[in-house]
Queue: 4 jobs
Job 1
Amino acid sequence: MSVQVWTWILVGVTFSLYFGIAIWARAGSTKEFYVAGGGVSPLANGMATAADWMSAASFISMAGIISFAGYDGSVYLMGWTGGYVLLALLLAPYLRKFGKFTVPDFIGDRYYSNTARTVAIICALIVSFTYVAGQMRGVGIVFSQFLQVDITLGVVIGMTVVLVFAFLGGMKGITYTQVAQYCVLIFAFMVPAFFISMQMTGNPIPQFGMGGKVEGGTFLLDKLDTLHTQLGFNEYTSGTKSTWDVFAITLALMAGTAGLPHVIVRFFTVPKVKDARKSAGYALLLIAILYTTAPAIAVFSRTNLIETVSNKEYNTIPEWFKNWENTGLIAWSDKNKDGKIQYVAGSALSSKKPVFTKERGIHGERLISNANTTANELYVDRDIMVLANPEIANLPNWVIALVAAGGLAAALSTAAGLLLVISTSISHDLIKKQLKPNISEKGELLAARIAIVVAILIAGIFGIYPPGFVAAVVALAFGLAAASFFPAIVLGIFDKRMNKEGAIAGMVVGISLMLFYMIRYKTGLIGVMDPRPVSEWWFGTSPEGFGTFAMLVNVIVSIIVSRVTPAPPKKVQEIVENIRIPSGAGEAVSH
């Protein structure tokens, strides 16, 4: 059977499973809608958390970034994995004991202020919509290529699927759907990795295959370093980023992880604080399976891409290249008219994306109108590396289709969690806690469902008009979370002197600074048409790492303002002391 037939079968089966779970797990109360009734087992919650956490950025884009950035791409592995450890050890148990299942709810009650709650709601919406933009782009990429439908139609299909299980089941439906999605995405990620590792190195375990030898007795990484240097790139195993920027990006991703609202809420779906710790442990183990495999997939796909395409005649390259060429995610411009693809260091285009013309070239290639004069003739979007990897390696059609189903599972699971955060921020934190405190449970549930519909429509617009490749957009969302939520949460738990004035000032300054830098240096919308060059970065800090700087400014502003304004009420200070004491250890002693 063809790839398209296999894809329709596997996607149809998995989507039917998701729909069935959504109908079975319909939410009948706000508690079921917001926190799945609080009765999910630690193992199931660990699987759901892993699926919620491993988004399209983890499945589709992370290995793609590493395949191009090499050693520099390790910041994503360190930041996202380390961030989850930070969340599990430093924040989750205390937030669970505090008893507020949304970040705005925690901030509103801890800082005894609806103004603080409102600022937190705004921050949650900004972070969640920035994050969900990457997920919807992932959905569009998968549908566009594997189901041979228009990218807009693909996004609409994805929106419909998320709407069904999020609208019907809320957190209850999402949780059990994510358990199934974890199984799908991890199987889809690992199967081609096993195949390709065995194919290239004779070792079926990807983590060992990456360090193994290929035909001829050369170590795979040495071979890739040689291929890189021959083409004018830096060695794959050497880094080009400054030590400061590596540190800044890693810390921003770690702190952003610990401040992500859609991950924090998962610790309220289990019955007890002890279960929250257990589910965090399960999730970390389940996440590690994918995260330790991603570098291997990056090495396999990068090596295969170079050997398959570089200096090859267009008429002789495999069919996968021409298939992906039709999506606009790979492009070739025959600048020297020799019919061969010259893939060397440097940008092939005058702008970030290829601009295709209606005509075809003399070799049958799609012509682009924005090629520049550099020697490099090949443009490759990072987001195709995982999805195209099985095709590049000439694996069976069912494996190629399985990867498509896995990519959709990863994107849809995280999108659902993010959309629920958006819905909860509106219905619970804004309407119930501020605008209409006396609203009935039925009315609050209706408001939550209406908010999800609106959020999905907005998310769909992001998918149709994507702001960039998946992991870059997601990394910026982590920077926003680090700059806004992380200091307010940590100081709220560990500094009983922190007051509402300090928290509000810190969040406003932190997220404003991050938004300014992100827009100025990533999109170029402030004052210029193009993003500003690397030479103009503040202190040599990339937009992905600037969350660290904005977070530090947030902490400094928060502490200074809190010390020159009145202390929190005595009752709030006692709550802060008590949430840090393990259950059964006795009461806090006031000094």
Job 2
Amino acid sequence: MAKWLSRELVEIPSEFSLKLHSLVKQILFSRGLKSEKELQAFIAPDYQTDCLNPFLFCEMEKLIERIRLARDLKEKVIIFGDYDADGITSSAILKETFSELGVDADVYIPDKRTEGYGLNLLAIDIFKIAGVKLIITVDCGITSFAETEKAKQYGIDVIITDHHHVPEKLPNALAIINPHQKNCGYPFEDLAGVGVAFKVVQAIYEKLMPEKIGQTKWMLDLVSIGTIADCVPLIGENRLFVKYGLVVLSKTRRVGLLELFTVGRIVIDESAIPDTKKVSFYIAPRINAAGRINHANLAYNLIVEKDTVRARDFALELEENNIERQKITAEVVKEIKSLAENSYKNKKIIFAISDHFPIGVVGLVAGKIAQMFNKPTAIFQKGTDESKGSFRSIPQINIIESIGKCSHLLLKFGGHSQAAGVSVRNDQMENFQKALEEIIEKQLEGIELESEIIIDGQVETKEIGFDLIADIEKLKPFGMGNAEPIILVKNLVINEKRFLGSEKKHVKFLLSLAEKNSSDNESMRVFEAISFNGGEKFASLKENDQIDILCNIQKDDWNGNSRIQLNVVDMRISKIS
């Protein structure tokens, strides 16, 4: 059972005049917005005025001058990307920019299974033979020390653009663009890799192609996909990119994306702006599936393809990869779930290592297990000499800082507070596991590991209507750092319960006020509530039970009709006072 916690109420200034439901005002203030000006900018951000100057990055001028030189000398340039949706979209927008600028640039995305994450020494050798003079990384590179030095020895300059955790020592690169870098100068630290790449794109257009700078807006479809996929907070500039990017996505003319939508039966068109869930659950997983099952080049080639027939072939292959990814993930989750329930029942961190765990899904599995058991989780594929793994964490643990304390035992590591990747020699695995377990155990000493649900506010049933929903929707786009509001509605009774789907995974409820009054229309109102994948969780609830519900209050449009739907987050039997 999850613990229900209510946000502390914040006093709203009396001079606040923006017309919003009191619940929505409270949500905005509780999320750190303290003035009417800030709230107005949050609800209606302006792309022209709210976009930050890319030259606030302290080394952006140096980057621009090196790219200008590459263009003038007709040098060979490599864009070195990553194999996830963030890295793929980053690579695509930078490639588009260089093509427009007239720079001879190719994209290189490593094979996750054979090369691993980030720059590698073998790739540097390949670039030397190909006559490359400049490497620009996107979504990686901040820990590529040896690779940067080797490139320098070969006379190849390296520019790093990244957004991951910055180590104490930095690679000896020509320029580094990373908002977490000390004395970086950029005021917004939470950009995704594609966000950093887009700031580079903006800077290139501003200095080298100012007459075409309006074109950059049409890249926001890819910027929004990469930003949403990487689960960075949807606040500040990220919110700006995603809000406008989803509009561009609804109008996209990218042949590859259109074929992806068709093959995957994903409804994206100009009739309605898609929400972040559509990207998170349908678009991003398909793009990520390429690197997990095959090679990320498949997804990259799909995105940049201009021929419909070839794009359809790429989309069909990507769909097959995604189906395979789902199957493999389910199998590994089942195996590790059993391990977690037994061997790791009394431990604060779950560690699973096996030579048969596919490297392509270890991150996905770690995320699912961490969420399932509310414990930091590490899943490793054991190789002949070394093992590679992914970590997913919980809010109480900054996993990259914890791993950093064991860095002397590792070959390579990098990531964020809640997700990280590691390479470790097999003869050091036992020492690493023991050291990290001790660190985590100490950090979580005395802390009960139970999941928590933060309640944004409570409403009476009489307040639930389309006006409230309209005000809630002004908070979109929802995502990490700006979650869809979780609202408490108390003292309802279950009138009807019905399982949905062939496997009865989903469940639908019809709810009304527990206290009936035939003369009161409100007490006779019936609300439809649905719990996706909640069939097992709410199996014990039955008709006539009096319950409290945590939900997202939404509008459901179907066949031209709109109705109110309560999307269930959690339910429990009411505590009668």
Job 3
Amino acid sequence: MLYSLQSKYLSSYKSAMLLYDKNNKKEFEKRLFFSIVFAIVAFVIILSRLWHLQILQGKKFKSLSENNRIRIVKIPAPRGIIFDRKGRVLVDNYPSFDLSIIPEDINDPERAIKELSGLLNVKAELFKAKLKEHRDNPPFKPIKVKTNLDYREVAIVETNKLDLSGITIEIEPKRLYVFDKLAAHLIGYVGKISASQLKTRGSDGYNMLDLIGKCGIEHDYESVLRGSNGGAQVEVDAVGRKVRVLRELEPNPGENIFLTIELDIQKLAEKALADMIGTVIVMDPNNGDILALASSPSFNPNMFSLGISSKEWEALVTNPYNPLANKAIQGQYPPGSVYKIITAIAGLEEKVITPETIFYCDGSYKFGRRTYRCWQKKGHGRVNLHRALVESCDVYFYQVGQKLGVDRIAHYSSLFGLGKPTGMSLLNEKSGLVPTRLWKRRAFGSPWQDGETLSVAIGQGFVLVTPLQILNLISSLANGGALYRPQIVKKIESIGGDIIKEFFPERIKKIPVSDNSFSLIKDALWGVVNESRGTGWGARIEGADVAGKTGTAQVVGLPKGSSNEYVPFEYRDHAWFTAFAPKDKPKVAIVVLLEHGGHGGNKAARIAKEIMKEALKILNSDSASF
């Protein structure tokens, strides 16, 4: 019986052990499975992380690692030099000492900035603001905190360099505009690249702190002037001090540009404008070369090169006379009586008048229900074409305009390039406006009124021009009908003096106007300056045979009998004078526009006289030297 019980117990025990082993094996297999899955997942994660760090971001971390010991230092390329037509330097470069901080090399930024602030007598907040502005930069990249250190400041920093870890002085070429404001609107200026410019030109190798041309020649010829930067691999010690240069790539300076402007004539133009508001442009009418271009008020581009302050910028942008605008190509004005040249040519070519056609002027002309006044209150009497231009009779041209209609006047305006940009290679040139019947219908949804043609015929109403367009008009008249594209660049040279590109006169077209019409108008414009009743007598130069035309452009309608002398400045008429000389073999053409300058025969004509007188001497001297 005991044996039987033992047998049953052993049998039960074996069954229990078999069940336990079976359950234990399943649990073991389950745990083993999860362990393998976990190991595989962990391995995949580690492998993907290694792939991400070593493959995707390998270059970045290699750069970070190398920069613990080796720094890549940019060597900026000097921009190309800008000369006048005779090779005199207008824009150059000079070495600027700039103070930079390398965040990675500073152990105690707060103490370093405080010490640096005390040494240079600069508010610590200014340094902190610069660091905050560039806080997203890699820590080994220098951050410029002060530019254009003088020699005393450089000496102070260098003397205390052992105690100023992470502080470094970099030497960079900066732009020097040799004559300050001279030709500022033509030459332009450079400034720190903007975020929008960086977005469009980042692929060209620009970085956030780079300088770039903002307007004028500096902007339009940026790719020519810029050059290509160099660089150096520099080994540094634990505190960022240079140990040795491992490798260096020299920068390639930008190419040099020779402008068409003549420095001495440009100085004359700038001096003549002085504190007035307006522009003076001088051109060679035989090829379109711009000899001078001055716009006033002006600005000093060196302010931007040195780093313009917020106060200086505020003064520029809030100035009501907009010193940053190039009035020569961006100012749009009614041309006043200068436009009578167009009306006269249209009248002759369309045969609505002859040189002998007479109109009577008693000081006003009644058309419909309105009376149109002549500037000469007592009238001019019986007037033919020659006298109408010489004395600038409004009544004569009211009647010529009435016979022509606005569309025929517009046609001859467009022949001389009015109503569209001249194509001069400067940014934001305006087109002006030559009105037509169709234009008014599209612009205002209303029909053209015949009375509006009378205003257009004397350069008032809707018509608008730029001073450069008027200069093109007088130049093409002077040379017998050739319309040239205005040129401001003569040639581009390498730093070694090799000519890379030369610019030649670009004749747009021969204006389809008869030689007889040109001859009649030129004779009349000679009379404007040289005959006793001519409105441009103030520009007369003995022996120079100046031919020109005055213009007075109304800014607002004034009551009858009003005098500019008693009208607020901003409501006074604009003054025009445009001329060329000598009449038969012209060497120089000029336009003077004075905003709110009154009658064109006064200040504007006298300014033109002084510039032309000296310009002819300079040009004659140049001719004699060849």
Job 4
Amino acid sequence: MSRVLKKIKSFIESEEPLEQKLLNIFLISAFIFSAFSVIASFILHADKSVIVVASICIALIPFCFVLANDLKQAELAAILTIILAMVLFVPMFFYSGGLRCGMQVWFLMALILPWILVRGKKSLVLFVLIFCVETAAIIISIKYPQYVHEIGSEIKFAFDVIQSLFIIGSILSSIYVFQKSNFENQNKKVMEAYEAVKEATEAKSTFLSNMSHDIRTPMNAIIGFSTLAKKDTSNRQNVEDCLDKILTSGNYLLSLINDILDMSKIERGDNTPNFTKLNLKRLIESISTMLDYQIKCNDLELIIDYSKVEHDFIETDLVKLKKIIVNLISNAIKYSKDESKKIWLTVSENIKTENLSEYEFVIEDEGKGISEEFMQKMFMPFEREKDSTSSGIIGTGLGLAITKSAVESLKGTIDVESKFGKGTKFTIKLDCKYFNLSPDEENIEDDAVSFQGKRVLVVEDNELNLEIASRLLEDFGFTVDKVSNGMEAYHAVMKCRDDVYDLIYMDVMMPVCNGYEATRKIREIPHLKKSRIPIIAMTANAFEEDIKKAIECGMDGYIIKPLSPEEIVKETKRVLIVN
């Protein structure tokens, strides 16, 4: 019995359409109460024809149930159920005494069923059909009373009416109770969804408010120090100091924007890791170098313990691992300003099997710590313990959410221990394949590629961006030609000799002819060398679909603005080596 109840509960709570659930409720309740009716009729010696017809009804119910649930033909089963009710109710009407019986109640239920079990125009068609058939049966019973089989005694008549009222009432009550319960559950889900949306809206509103302040803070520094540097051009030391602060503020502003883009990718489900081989020791060193200025500005010390790592070369997602460590150390820097002078990064390795180790990254500080209340929601997007204006600590409230998502995408774990006012300890554990490389293989990363003597065509409509890109590429040894849109780039390639350009840096969003169209045109040039010139997209469009579109149109690489020397070197090397 418990298994039956579990089965009933499972299909009632399933994601099947409401009409199918109502059909199941009707069939189950009709089967149960009709069976009682047949037994009672048999005991009271009711007309055998009535018992036979009722038994046929009961026998057909399991067939309709199987058709709806096992064969997944719920609408067909509902229509068949209604038609069977209409066909079988008519003879029962005549055999049960016509108007002097309880079949009028059954007729009423038959009229209600199309609206409960079927959607759309079919319900209206079935209603009209049943109404016509039942009306015809009533008229015939009045006009030709000889076709009506009288029940007999008043006791049997009363029993038939009471029985009909009980069965139909029970069936309709079952449907009503289910409908009410279903409505309450749906209403509860809607309210929960509403509260979730409300909370998300409030969080995003707070986020936008914070972002307005957080973006203006580095922008104010960039504009302010640019003004000071311009006024004091004769003092080289002051100018260099201003430029350092402008660069720091610009990098921070970029990190804010990157956080938003990363969160957009996560919300779209675009969080697939890109596994590559990397030198973990060098990665840690590069992170330390990158954060060195920020650490020194806050009068802090980053203590790195790498002594418990046996294998430096591992396979993981370099970008995600770097983001995890940088985010957590950056948080430690923010919340250690006035509390402590030291931050610890401890990396250790626990060999599990051949070529597989568990790498543990522990970032610990003695700073402000995290309150118990905020610990419950610290990994939720847009959440911050205090806004930047009250705490003096700026940020998007996305760093920990992005960090947790990155850890989970790498099948790792993140744990946090913290006491408010005493510091915080984050522990990241990742399983990574490790490799034993030869000394020659270890030095592969240091191989340099000279760009001297190579010629590049830079396609950019914005004059400032064109100047920046050109000067960066010239610093790397390139001879640079410049054009301002895709059509000019196409004509430049068409007019030049086959071997003039080694590379094209192509902006995407341009007037006259955009980067995608220009690339397609170049790829269609009949001259083999010209059509195969490597093209690297140079754009502010940073979403995955933009990168996919660039590759589909024939581009070989992709660099996201603002341009960084490291990314230019890395992508240029890759594209030139491949081509």
